[in-house]
Every structure is written in structure tokens, then in C-alpha cells.
Specification:
The complex is a heterodimer of chains A (154) and B (330). In chain A, 9% of the residues lie in helices and 25% in strands. Chain A is mostly beta strands and 154 residues long. Chain B is built from eleven helices and five strands. A five-stranded antiparallel beta sheet of chain B has the order 1-2-3-4-5. The two termini of chain B are 40 Å apart. In chain B, 33% of the residues are buried. The chains are: A mainly beta (154), B alpha+beta (330).
């Protein structure tokens, strides 16, 4: 988990898994997460290449659930009805305590919008809907079982 | 399932309580008798008149105190028995036809008992509901409805417990009374019991009513969140979001259209989501933002999501619901 002077790794494969922690309220009665549970324009995740799913619960969220989605599930670009383009990228953003920490960031014309209001509502909503619908539940809140085996960690 | 608030289970059955207390009294009397025997024997062995007198006085005081406790306990038991009998006759003698949206003579008297006798009345009512004999199911249902409807903070947890417990009742009418009672209490603590009840409910109508109540309680739960509830700095939903989410649930109820979830939004507000029973890939939601706008989306994974701004009005929300309904069905 600790960075230990490791460098930023900017390369993400499309099938790399990203882990996101979720509390009970994020799950509907069928056990799927809903669009209102996805953060925007910056969404913090742990990358699967350098962490196990349960690391995303450290240190204080052990009772929460975990979902994963693959890098390829994140839309590369979304457009507003009038043609404005917004790009999305997963970027490795390690902290001292969490080397795997990454963020899904939004870009407009190559720059990160300074405020959330600079991104069209329809784009925000579309992005959050898509990501939530590709999320796969690994652990339901209040349980201790990881439902799917994780990839080998580098 | 273990409930958080568990009254003294067996003792809540009132006749058992009375028998139990009577047996306790009997034991106290026996002890008292034995004590007298010991004192007499003890005194006979003491030669010193001075010490003998002190000990005799001490035990005399002790004996008086014991008698006074016995008298006091007896009077409490008699008082509780009177309350029980009074409430029992209210339950047994009621011959009314109850209506969901109006008070009844029964409900008026029931609430009067609770205001007058407090927890003791609720204990008696609980005994009658849980171990009912010669009491009509409709009366039990009406009692449960009013247990949720009255404003009596001291007995709140007890009443909530009874209602949660009766979600498992085998009579549909009783469960209906529970749903109305829990709806009035509007306490998210009931969510976990309601989920269990929904999974085992055999009546479609009752399951539907329970799911509707579940949505209502989720909204209530969202309304009590604190700042940073999501660990990433989200605000709790504000009055705008809660107001329009509540209106939306009311419209959905009129249309008999159930949402799949009601949840706070990490983007500050409330989301009401929908899924299709027929198409696994179809998803929709309406999100009410603290900033004062409402957005809806429909999505099927084959195409980009369709997002639109919902007019902040009953008509706007009704129109969005209709669009979502059609999308999920086709």
C-alpha cells in the first residue's frame, strides 16, 4: 500500500480493475449500485495493478462495500447535445499511504475545468450513469466476503 | 432476528406477569417467615439482655420494612392487573368497522389509555397483541396502526419494537396495520425488518405496500445525514431535494410505480432510481440536486444515456416518470 518512493505509473491497460468503496445506501434492492453514488468530476479509486480490492476500505471503512469497474468501462469522451466535448482519463495519483490511489479526471480542451459548473449537466449525469452500470459488486456492505478473486498484484 | 429493543419477553404477556409477580410475593413471604424463625432462635441463644434488645429492635424494623414492601408490591400488581383487564375488555368488546383514514372509538380509548398509564398500558397492549385470544384480527390491526400514530415519546422504542415484531404476523390484516403504524412512525430503524418481511411476503398487495414504505423510510434516512456522509465531503440533501423527492414518491404511489431505490446523492441531493423487471440492462433515475435542479436519465448500455432537465413542478416530474415507465417496459 505504501508508496515507498515508487514512481508514478501512467500506463493503464483497458482491462485493469479499479476499486471504489460504497456504503449501504449506494446499493439498490437488487444489490446493484446506482448512478447517484458516483462522484464527479473527480472520482477517487484504487488501481488493481497495485492493490487488493479490500485496500480501498482502509483505514476506516471496513464495513462498506466494494465495487470494481475496468478502465475500458470509462467513457473516453462524452458530448453535449450542442457538440461540446469532454474527455475522461484515469490518472495514477499515489499518496504516501496509498500507492495505488488514482483519479478519474475530466478534461475540456485539454484542461481540467476549474469548477464543477463548467461541465455540462448532461455530461456529468451520463458519465455517472455509465460508470455505475458497469460496476461489478465485489463485496456487499456489512459482509466480509470478497465475491470475486482479485488479479495478481505487481 | 434479534431486535435492538427487546422488552422482557415472557413478562410482556400480562397474565404470566401477574402469576410471576404473585410467586415472587409468595417467596418474599416465605423468606419473611423463615427470618422470624431465625430471629427467635437467635434471640433465645443470647444471654445478654442489652444486646438481645438491640438485635430484637433491629429485626423488628426489618420486618416492618419487608411488610411495607409486600404491601406496596401487591398494590402495584393490583393496579397493573386493573389496567390490563380494562384494556383487555376494550380489545374484546370492540365491534367497530375500522377505516384506514379515520379515528375510531377504539383508537380514541386506546390512545387515552396510553396517555393515562404510559408504558404500563403499552405493555398490556403488547401482551394482548402478541398472545391474543378472543380478540378480532381487525382490532389488533387497528391497535397497531395507532401504536404508530400517537405522540408518546416515553413508549416510542417499545411501540417501534412491537410494530417491527408484528411484520412477521401470519395475518395479512395485522401486517397491514403494522405498515400503517410504521409509516406514521417513519423510523428508518425498521428498514432491515421490512426487507426481511418483503422477502417472505406472500401477498402481492402487501409486498407492494411494504416496498412503498421502504422507499419512504430510505428518504427519511437520507434526510438525517451529516456533512461528509460519503467520506468524500458530500453535503446531506437539503430541503429542496427532500421536498421534490417526497413529491415524486407520492406521484409514483398514485401511479403504482415502484422505484428500485431511494438514496442520497454524492453530488449533493437525492436520487430515485428505477430498474426493469424485464430488461436487465435498462436503468433510469431522477436526481434532485441541492442546487435547485432536477435531472433524469434513461440508459440501456447499447446507446449513450439520454439525460434531460426536469421541470421543477408536479407536471414536469409526472412527465419524467411517464417517460421512464415507458422506457422500462418496452
Amino acid at each position: 500500500m505504501y508508496r515507498n518512493n515508487r514512481l508514478v505509473d501512467p500506463n493503464f491497460q483497458k482491462d485493469e480493475r479499479l476499486y471504489y468503496r460504497c456504503q449501504e445506501d449506494f446499493f439498490d434492492e437488487k444489490g446493484n449500485i446506482v448512478g447517484s453514488s458516483i462522484k464527479f468530476p473527480t472520482c477517487s479509486v484504487n488501481r488493481g495493478k497495485y492493490s487488493k480490492p479490500e485496500d480501498v476500505l482502509l483505514p476506516d471503512y471496513l464495513n462498506w462495500g466494494i465495487v470494481e469497474f475496468q478502465v475500458g468501462n470509462i467513457p473516453a469522451q462524452l458530448k453535449t447535445p450542442d457538440g461540446k466535448e469532454f474527455d475522461f482519463k484515469v490518472e495514477h495519483d499515489p499518496t504516501e499511504e496509498n500507492y495505488s490511489h488514482s483519479e478519474i479526471r475530466t478534461y475540456k480542451d485539454g484542461l481540467i475545468p476549474k469548477t464543477n459548473k463548467q461541465v455540462a449537466d448532461s455530461v456529468k449525469k451520463s458519465f455517472r450513469t455509465i460508470v455505475s452500470q458497469y460496476a461489478v459488486v465485489l463485496k456487499q456492505p456489512g459482509t466480509i466476503t470478497i465475491l470475486k478473486e482479485e488479479e495478481e498484484i505487481s | 432476528m434479534t431486535h435492538l429493543y427487546e422488552p422482557q419477553s415472557d413478562i410482556t404477556f400480562y397474565s404470566s406477569l401477574i402469576n410471576y409477580q404473585a410467586s415472587v410475593l409468595n417467596e418474599i413471604s416465605k423468606i419473611d417467615y423463615l427470618k422470624s424463625q431465625v430471629i427467635t432462635q437467635f434471640l433465645s441463644q443470647i444471654d445478654d439482655i442489652y444486646y438481645s434488645k438491640i438485635i430484637e429492635d433491629y429485626f423488628a424494623v426489618l420486618k416492618t420494612e419487608t411488610s411495607s414492601i409486600i404491601t406496596e408490591t401487591s398494590s402495584i400488581i393490583n393496579y397493573e392487573a386493573d389496567i390490563y383487564l380494562e384494556i383487555e375488555s376494550l380489545f374484546i368488546d370492540s365491534r367497530e368497522i375500522f377505516k384506514d383514514d379515520t379515528e375510531s372509538n377504539f383508537s380514541r380509548q386506546l390512545t387515552a389509555f396510553i396517555y393515562k398509564y404510559g408504558i404500563m398500558a403499552v405493555e398490556a397492549i403488547t401482551g394482548l397483541i402478541l398472545y391474543r385470544k378472543d380478540i378480532a384480527v381487525e382490532v389488533v390491526s387497528e391497535a397497531l396502526r395507532w401504536l404508530g400514530n400517537i405522540n408518546h415519546p416515553e413508549s416510542y422504542k417499545f411501540r417501534l419494537w412491537v410494530l417491527e415484531k408484528c411484520l412477521e404476523d401470519s395475518f395479512r390484516n395485522v401486517r397491514n396495520g403494522v405498515i400503517l403504524g410504521l409509516s406514521s412512525l417513519n423510523d428508518p430503524d425498521a428498514i432491515k425488518y421490512l426487507r426481511d418481511a418483503i422477502s417472505s411476503e406472500v401477498s402481492d398487495e402487501m409486498r407492494y405496500n411494504m416496498q412503498q414504505l421502504l422507499a419512504q423510510l430510505k428518504l427519511k434516512k437520507a434526510s438525517s445525514l451529516q456533512k461528509n456522509w460519503d467520506s468524500y465531503g458530500a453535503d446531506p440533501p437539503n430541503a429542496f431535494a427532500l421536498f421534490w423527492a417526497e413529491k415524486t414518491l407520492a406521484i409514483l404511489s398514485q401511479k403504482r410505480f415502484l422505484p428500485s431505490h431511494v438514496a442520497p446523492s454524492v453530488e449533493n441531493g437525492i436520487g430515485i432510481s428505477f430498474s426493469s423487471d424485464f430488461f436487465e440492462d435498462k436503468y433510469s433515475d431522477i436526481e434532485f440536486f441541492n442546487e435547485g435542479n432536477i435531472l433524469a436519465v434513461i440508459y440501456n448500455r447499447q446507446e449513450d444515456p439520454e439525460v434531460w432537465e426536469v421541470d421543477v413542478s408536479i407536471e414536469g416530474i409526472t412527465s419524467a416518470i411517464e417517460k421512464i415507465y415507458v422506457f422500462l417496459q418496452q
